[in-house]
Amino acid sequence: MTGLKIGDKYAAIPIIQGGMGVGVSRSRLAGAVAKEGGIGVISSAQIGYDEDGFERHPEECNLRALKKHIRLAKEIAGGVAGKSHGLVGVNVMVALKNYKEHVRTAARSGADLVICGAGLPMDLPLLVEGTDCAIAPIVSSARAADLILKTWDRKYQRTADLVVIEGPKAGGHLGFKEEDVAGAGISDAEYDEEIRKIIACLETWGQKYGRKIPAAVAGGIFDRADIDHALALGADAVQIASRFVATEECDAADAYKQAYINAGAEDIRIIKSPVGMPGRALYNGLLRELEERGRIPIRKCYGCIKKCHPAEVPYCITKALIRAVEGDVEGGLIFCGANVGRIDRIVTVRELMRELTGN
């Protein structure tokens, strides 16, 4: 495995730890991954859930926490003076009401990279202007990749520093139709072909700008064999999320991590999220209650998602995710990847990175 160049930045190990909200990947996890030479990623989604005043002023707390966790992650990784062999990035969902403010704050607070999914980040170049922050969209199809890069070229005369290609086995919100991820869904062979098409698209746009646009494959990456397969398809890196939950440094409660250890393939469900996308999660008391009642009334809106209408959605996703990360694994929402049933123990980030790289 060779290092990964992202714009003018470099990581010694081409492994991106996927951003996981709410609070699952903050400074402790992202900093530990960057310290080992990878790309540690903080999720900005309701990152300030445990800040004083969050119930009254959630967005103010989120922006304050985002700045804090970027600083702390860089300190853990080796300091802001460039001693680390890795990078610290931030994942910002386009679906957030305050998406633009989160991107601007991340870029101006020293994030090496901003990764955006759960929507098409058509204005991302504008939001990082005046900073050296690299930018990366998350796509699931060649059509989406070409549309984003064509728009960036026309409006901003620039291209991506990295593109994350997220497949149907990923955890959390998925950029696919429900029938593509439920049951048999899209086959591995079919999606391998889509990955090749996306990489070909990146090569075309890279030629125009006289640079390589690296691709990172995400979704269902579990071990070194999966990494080697992704690299054989032409990818330059991989993004892995679920396996980093089962680490000592993961920012979630121990009960959350144990839920991953205890889970089997039969515990995974495809749900309809209030975000408006299908999602992959562990079946628990919350999902049983939703099956029985159809809806859990929302008493407070945290103003997190653009398309969320509290009177219509089946439950509050913010409250459900906060409950989970704090350790209420029955009453909260636990997102997971398709291979969660293969995770059988808690390890350190260093141990996991060594396993994945073979070092």
What characteristics describe this protein?
3-stranded antiparallel beta sheet; globular; 359 residues; 37% helix; alpha/beta; 13 strands; 8-stranded parallel beta sheet
Describe the structure.
- The protein is an alpha/beta fold and 359 residues long.
- The protein has 13 helices and 13 strands.
- The strands form three sheets. The protein has an eight-stranded parallel beta sheet with strand order 3-11-10-8-7-6-5-4. A three-stranded antiparallel beta sheet has the order 9-13-12, with no helix packed on it.
- Helix 1 (27-35) packs parallel to helix 2 (58-77), helix 2 runs parallel beside helix 3 (99-108) and helix 5 (142-156) packs parallel to helix 7 (188-209).
- The termini are close together.
Summarize this entry quickly.
With 359 residues, the chain is an alpha/beta fold. The chain has helices at 27-35, 58-77, 99-108, 124-127, 142-156, 178-181, 188-209, 224-232, 242-245, 254-262, 285-293, 317-325, 349-357, and strands at residues 4-6, 9-11, 15-17, 39-43, 87-93, 113-117, 134-139, 163-166, 172-173, 215-218, 237-240, 268-272, 278-282.
